[in-house]
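[agent] plan:
  1. take the single chain provided in the ticket
  2. run structure prediction with default settings
  3. attach structure tokens to the ticket
  4. add a short note for the reviewer (M.T.)
[agent] executing step 1
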Amino acid sequence: MPGGQSFRFSRPGIVLGTKRPGGTTTRAERQVAATATGQTGMIDRLSSRGLLLALALGVALSGCGKKRDVDVRQLETMGPEDIYRSAEAEMDRGRAKTAAGRWGEIERLHPYSEFAKRGLIMSAFAYHEDKEYEKSRAAAKRFIEFYPADKDAAYAQYLAALSYYDQIDAIGRDQALTFEALSELRKVIELYPESEYARSARLKFDLAFDHLAAKEMEVGRYYLKRGYYPAAINRFRTVVEDFQTSSHTPEALHRLVEAYAGLGLYGEAQTAAAILGHGLAAHGEGRVALSRERRAGEPCCSA
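[agent] step 2 finished; step 3 output follows
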């Protein structure tokens, strides 16, 4: 963790002509039936309208496919710089997905050009802007694999980290994305410490780290409120021992006092209270003390 801190990872048809049951109905039969209810020809008109609508939709979808084919054929006739500039123009129009696709096409059509490398990192950026996080991460990782010593490798790693970080939501959700974000942010910090992205990565690392501690606290409070003291103690000790530099450590110590007292373990409660009384400066000492208790194997804390 930044600043000498450490922690354990212990924890993206339309079906026409369908047959009706019992065979088909002729046009004459439908007209007879419609006439009997004073609605002659209405069924035919509805059927015709439905057919026209289906045909129109088919033409529209076909048009989209043709437009894409035309776009690809046009790109195949363009040089790498022209494709790159056209992608920039699409990005300026707010069409990030189209821009990302065009930048990515440079790598396919002109793999040995300088614009292929630039297009790859820009496609990662554009996919991220479009919230296509998996595609953004894939492009960023490919850039790092192909150009590990390039000046933009730090930015590619930062984008890979953001592809996880920007998906972290409420603390009640699964925290797998948070662990992934921490892992990728750590790479930015350790591999590119002098880059312009290192400071932002450290700040995001601390926020994600605090986010995990918040999850542990949420679960611990749930257990404490219901009197499940051993389970609550396990969660609060995790915060004190594994997330001791987070903003949740003082509350975790306070809750430990409550949980230990609830079990009648007043000695342990006093230890936690003493650490809490010393404030943030005594967190290191508190971690050692509580770790010593855990190594002693307290039966009460096996939740």
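[agent] step 4 note for reviewer: The chain has two domains: 42-211, 216-301.
[agent] ticket updated
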